[in-house]
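Shipment paperwork, digital attachment
Item: protein structure file
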Amino acid sequence: MGDVARLAGVSSQTVSRVSTGFAGVNEDTRQQVLAAMRELGYRPNSAARALRRGEFRTLGVITFSLSTLGNIRTLDAIATSAAREGYAVTLLPVAVPTQDEVKGAFSRLGELAVDAVIVIMEVHLLDAATVSVPPGVQVVVADSDAGDRYTVVDTDQAGGARDAVRHLLELGHGTVWHLAGPEDSFAAQRRANAWRATLDEAGVREVPPLVRGDWSAESGYRAGLRIAEQADCTAVFVANDQMALGLLRALNERGRRVPEDVSVVGFDDIPEAASFLPPLTTVHQDFAEVGRLCVAGVLSKMRESGEEADTGEEHGTTLVPTRLVRRRSTGPAPKGARGV
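Attachment content:
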């Protein structure tokens, strides 16, 4: 730091302020110091800074699965947003969704020296109503119903499902079948509940039986073979795009045309959805915004914890809006269809 200061013609304190991103430095001076750093190959010692300031510039992320597309995209968005704020991410997958496993994950993250924790909690715990966080930990939870206990950020799952079902009903379909995700998933539960509620609100008297998959295209294909046998099925809302892909294959193999015979709506709007055959109508999730809000929320909590002790911790759920992306997999109900 002294070498940089001598080369730049400034004090060591100014170099320290530039290296820590302090705002009160003249821009010309900042550029002069940065040029000296580049010339000398100087990099701040982050470990020493962490010990001195008690801040590690690292966020821990606990997740119960890396196999689902939603979790992967949420994690990617969190890492991108954290990097933009100058933070690294330490990932800790939890093999079994139990309270003991969660406690163990928090303990390990404490040993790894993180400043705060984001929990991507897509599934219900097997042994508890909701996650229990150790006292003193700054935490934001993604995809959960723990908004009365913690700060939660989630996609508006119910709103997206309502838009999908209403779109199909407005096309003249008498009812809408639903290929749901697994029972232990918060997202699947909210989408299925909204599907049923929307049919009830529309006065649909005969609601089809709910069909379940496990988020995979293969499960969508297996469920699709059963749905394809239902001659009165003209519309299906699928809880994610990967299962919708399997459903499209099953319908094609059974000679059911999309959308002439059966309309299909997915959920997620994965990059490949526009390349399905036919291109998939789906509900777009803004994973980037979910990640940004998770990082912004936990950094806000960190700042509050360093200020007055009576600032108080706000709980509740922030919902990120969805939007329906209309493509060619949906169309008017077939003429003469009973719709059930």
